[in-house]
Amino acid sequence: MIRSTLLGVLALFWALAPAGAQEPPQTPFLRIEAGGHTGAVPRLAVDASGHLMASAGYDKTIRLWSLPDGREKSVLRPPIGAKEEGEIYAVALTPDGHRVFAGGATGGAWSSTFCIYIFDADKGVLVSLLPGLPAPVSDLAVSPDGSRFAAALMQGGIRVWDAASGKALFDDRMIDGPVRAILFDRQNRLFATSSDGKVRAYGADGKKSAELQPEPGLRPWGLALSPDGGLLGVAYENADKQGHLHVDVLNAQSLKPVFAPDTTGLQGAGLLALAWVADDRGSVQLMAGGYARTSAGNVLRRWGDFGLGPASDLPAAHDTILHILAVPGGGAVYSTEDPGWGRIGADGKVALKPDPPLADLRPARSGRFAVSTNGETVEFSTGKGILRFDAATRQLTAITNTDANLAATRPTAPGLAPSGWQDSNAPRLGSAAVALDKAEFARSLTILPGDERVLIGTDTHLRLVARDGKPIASVAVPAAAWAVTTSSDGHLAIAALLDGTIRWYGLTADAPLSERAALFTHGDGARWTLFTPEGLFDHADRGGAELIGVHLNRAHNQQPEWVSFSQAYRTLYAPAAVRARLSGDAEPSRARLAELGDIRARLARQPTVEVASACVPVADGSCAPVPFGPQRQAVLPAGADKLRLHLKLGDRGLGVGAIDAFVNERNAGRFPAPTLADKAGTADIDVPIDPGHDNIQIRAYDGGNSIFAETPTIDFAGAEEASGDQRGTLYVLAIGIDHYALPNLALHFAVADAKTFADSIKQSAAPLYKSVDVTLLTDKDATKAGILAAFERLGHKVRSRDTFLFYVASHGVASDDDHRFLLVPQDVSDISSMKALAAGAIDESTLITALSRIQAHDALLLLDTCHSGTVTADNLANVGHESGRYILAASSSVQEALDSYDNRNGVFVYALKEALSGRAGQDGDGDIGALALGEYVSKRVGQLARERGHAQDAEFKAAQSELRSFPIGKVLH
Question: Most CB atoms within 10 A, among 165, 209, 578, 845?
Answer without folding.
Answer: 578
